[in-house]
Amino acid sequence: MHHSRGISSRYEQVVRQLYHINAFVPVKLNLENVERLHEAMGSPLAKLIPNRLKNQENLPNNFCLKSDSKPLMSDVENNHISTQRNKILCESYSSSLDISSKVNEKMTNMKIVHVAGTNGKGSVATKIAKALENSNYRTGLYTSPHISSFRERMQINSVPISEEEIVDILPKIFDACEKHKIEATFFEITTCIAFEHFSRHNVDAMVLEVGIGGRLDATNIVSPSLSIITSIGLDHTNILGNTIEEIATEKAGIIKPSKSVVLGTNLPYDYIKDIAVARGAPILQLLELEEEDYIKTVPQNGQMSIDGTNDTIDLTTKPLFDQFDIENMRITKTACNYLVTQLGFEIPHEALQQALYARPPCRFEIISKEIKVNDFANQKEVKVEVPIILDVGHNQPALDYMFRKLTSQYPSSSGYTYRILIGLSKDKHIQLCLEKVKEYIQDGKMIHFVQASHPRAVNTKELTEEAKEIGLLVPNENKSYESVSDGIKDALKMTAEAINNKQKEVLIICGTFFIMAEAREALGIVEAHDSKIIEEVNGTQYKYAQEIFGPPSPIKR
After folding, report:
1. Residue 99 above 80 pLDDT?
2. Does the residue 300 lie in any domain?
3. Which of 314, 330, 355 lies at the terminal end of a domain, its last residue?
4. Segment 227-231 mean pLDDT
């Protein structure tokens, strides 16, 4: 720590102040704060001029949300939904509908895509935003959490918000909170920054990723043109509920009366269908990918380059996609087709095709790093290229997706072995995550545990004990690291030595978002990165602070 170091910029000062709020005001799921804050800031979303779509006047009336819209009970009865489920669906939604309607009635002309889901929501949001950007629409994208810079969270056409604009907007929000006595949380304030940023630049469309859940998430004050739920699994159970149905109810809170919704396949479809029917929300059928949707080559790291300079690989010689990639692409294609056919956007096929391959950082991101090792056989130092995969798979379903993709691209039948460095958060099913790791890596010597510098991080001792319970014995030297960086250096060295000894080893760095900033820095990845002044958060030992959740408390349903 460097407590004596002074704050060198106003940006550092205001973001550190925001991080202090994060440290001392835990996340609370409700819409009242963000609705009040939005009003106190002059309702920035209501200031947006209706975007430049050619066929808006021809849209059917049922695509506009009326402020007095109610769930369609007759549809519920006609579909024989049980009385008890109907009560859960309607009561759980009524509070969010009442609060958000004040904001919704001012935003009926907004073109917003709202994306929720346990896994895949960040990737789908990125793909849709890229399709609109590629089609020359000014597109706001709001995602969370960030990897290396706070500014990543709110982007317009792939450009993060500037430090100068943060410095201008954030103090105004602080003042509004103080003046109106709004105890806003980190995420609520961050969401308001995004809304103000998008309003100032008069975006043509917004793509919003839900932070957690959906029904009571700060993003859910909007009236979207289209809602999307990518998948549902057991995650954040201490916040959202202990069953798939409870979690589904929360995520389905983004489904609005008469507004269409896209559903992935990895979720309780019939349960969510009942909710959609109750609200008169049409469910769009997922479109299949056609041969012309694929491009011949993509960058080696699996991500599209803005300037096209990335090395490419031939799709006919190396499998790049698994069923989960394909599903995210199908959801994106379905959403974009709706934007074109029902909302008047013009998205050329090439723009969509390129967007289908877009990914956020650390979603099975493939890189390589040159490492020097001692070649004792030839008594000299040699350089070895180590293949590395960065992935924010941090729950059991996401790790399952990651390992399936890994074994498809680097099959053990071809001699590949896997070394993994992993850190997890406390609100996950740790044992389920480690059981998934064990399915593919049985040798504890190939596993490295690290602890993120974050209050939600699971310490390496607990990870070791959980691993031991399922028969994974991780040696002490693979878990006694003082930092994520130290763990990465050790794992890199071991993988490089294995490769130098003619083994086909791949290093996977995965788990919580909160290890990724330090991991990318340790790997020498050059990108926008907040300074240590910001990351330290004065008075705490947590360097990479992001959302902090309060003690578990059941959500009122």
Report:
1. no
2. yes
3. 355
4. 97
Cα separations in angstroms, 69 against 101, 124, 201: 9, 28, 30
What are the backbone dihedrals phi and psi of residue 110, each rounded to the nearest 5 degrees, phi first? Answer: -70, 145
Q: 10 Å Cβ neighbour count for 297?
A: 13
Residue with tokens 């086909």: 504
Q: What's the CATH code of the domain at 443?
A: 3.90.190.20
Task: Please indicate, yes or no, whether residues 214 and 341 belong to a single structural domain of this protein.
Answer: yes
What CA–CA distances, in Å, run from 453 to 86, 139, 402, 517, 540? 43, 33, 24, 10, 10
Cα angle value 457/460/461 (rounded, 5°) = 120
Q: HSE (CB half, 13 Å, CA atoms) of 284?
A: 28
Does the global pTM surpass 0.90?
Answer: no
Q: What is the pLDDT of residue 542?
A: 41
Q: Which CB contacts under 8 angstroms, 24+ apart, belong to 8-12?
A: 8/531, 8/533, 9/163, 10/167, 11/163, 11/164, 11/166, 11/167, 12/531, 12/533, 12/534
| Closest C-alpha among 228, 211, 200 to residue 153 | 211
d(CA 126, CA 207): 8
DSSP secondary-structure letter at 262?
Answer: E
**CA of 339: how far to CAs of 240, 314, 346, in Å?**
31, 31, 8
